Amino acid sequence: MGKLSAALNDLDVKILEGLGTYGPRNLTEVARKVGTSTEMVRLRIKRMSSLFYLRMSANIYHTNLGLKKAVVFFEAAPGYEDLLVDCLEIKGFCIYLSRCYGRFEGYLGIYVIPGGHETEFEQFLQEVEKLGLVRNIRVFWSTCFHTVNRTVKWFDHQSGTWILPWDEWIEEAQTKGTELPYTLVDPEDFPQKADEIDIFIMKELEIDATTSLVAIAKKLGTTLQKVKYHYQRHVIERGLIETFQIFIFPFDRAVSDMFFFTFKFDSKEKMAKFALSLLDKSFVYIVGKILGENAIIAQIYLPRTEFRRFADCLSKLIRSGFLQSYDYVIQDIRPGTWFREELHCDLFKGRSWIYDHEKHMKDLHDLAGRIMSKRNKYH
């Protein structure tokens, strides 16, 4: 059982778990459950935000907004690694874009595409490849992501350190139950349950989950009563938010890496057991299921020394016949190499999304032309 130096102490971790359980909008309840004062919780949050990149945001359940999630891996053509990024950003529908390396040099993109426009989106991707900007593109249509927040599990309170007992995890992965949460079940459809006020509220909470409804009402130019109604009766009761993500780096960034994995299984039962074993682990951020397949996607963050032990565990699971295969890329998490975007309110009108395929294609060709011109200057 290897031990890792912890940047966070026992109270920090308890507060993080409380924020994940009760939400960052309910600090009084977090303080009560942790056994400290609300003021102390606020002070600890401020400290963690400045020292450990603590960010708290709403994790939108895009399925109930009529949006289908796609995870795309782009292998950049040599020479285009730094120039490609603008071409991959479909304004308003690319919610995450990150440089990645390892298996290849390129980008990881996460898109949310309005139902009925999947074919057009794939045509866009094919055009990126035809233009010679990328060598290969892999697309995985996915469920919405299940958020995994930090908990006290695998944190040793006596020593104040994270522990990663990999043998315990291998056994757990093979003996878990098989009932997946709704977030990891293929949805029957992609209903549109929001209106324009709901979209605005969620956009603000994606930026900062602690934003007050008073502040949102002021920005909207409407009454607090109306915003409260929409937040409770629409956003919460209609399941437009999956949960609140309490994002923090639990391990030292100087000696740790972020990975995006795909795991494949030969049965639904094995996939479910494996997925459930990840949902309370300190090294996991998000888990999604690839639609129509016994496969999952996971974002994982590990110290480099522990990554080798994790890979050894995966090898054992393959040899035992439990895991079929896996693949991964390493994300570049240096400043300026990744970005995330919130919902674009201006692309939601009359309770429907505006997905202008012709404009996206034109913008792609315009950007590609500029990239070609810029690259030719280097020769």
Folded structure, characterized:
- With 379 residues, the chain is an alpha+beta fold.
- Among the domains are: 106 residues, Lrp/AsnC effector binding domain/regulation of amino acid metabolism (RAM) domain (Alpha-Beta Plaits, 2-Layer Sandwich); 43 residues, Arc Repressor Mutant, subunit A (Orthogonal Bundle).
- Helices cover 38% and strands 26% of the residues.
- The chain contains twelve helices and 17 strands.
- Strand 4 and strand 5 form a beta hairpin.
- The longest helix has 20 residues.
Tags for this model:
379 residues, alpha+beta, Alpha-Beta Plaits, Arc Repressor Mutant, subunit A, ten-stranded antiparallel sheet, 12 helices
Our Rg estimate from Cα atoms comes to 21 Å
What is the CATH T-level topology of the domain at 62-145 and 355-376? Answer: Alpha-Beta Plaits
SSE order in H/E notation? EHHHEEHEEHEEEEHHHHEEHEEHEEEEH
In DSSP terms (H or I, runs of 4 or more residues), the helix count works out at 12
Residue windows where pLDDT falls under 50 for at least 5 positions:
none
Look at the structure and name the CATH superfamily of the domain at 62-145 and 355-376.
Answer: Lrp/AsnC effector binding domain/regulation of amino acid metabolism (RAM) domain
How far is it from the N-terminal to the C-terminal residue, by CA? Answer: 53 Å
Major sheet: size, sense and barrel closure? 10 strands, antiparallel
Annotation, overall tally of beta strands: 17
Q: What is the CATH architecture term of the domain at 62-145 and 355-376?
A: 2-Layer Sandwich
Assign the structural class, choosing from mainly alpha, mainly beta, alpha/beta, alpha+beta, or little secondary structure.
alpha+beta
What is the percent of helical residues?
25-40%
Average pLDDT metric: 93
Global shape: globular
Please report the first level of CATH classification, the CATH class of the domain at 62-145 and 355-376: Alpha Beta
| Beta-strand residue percentage | 25-35%
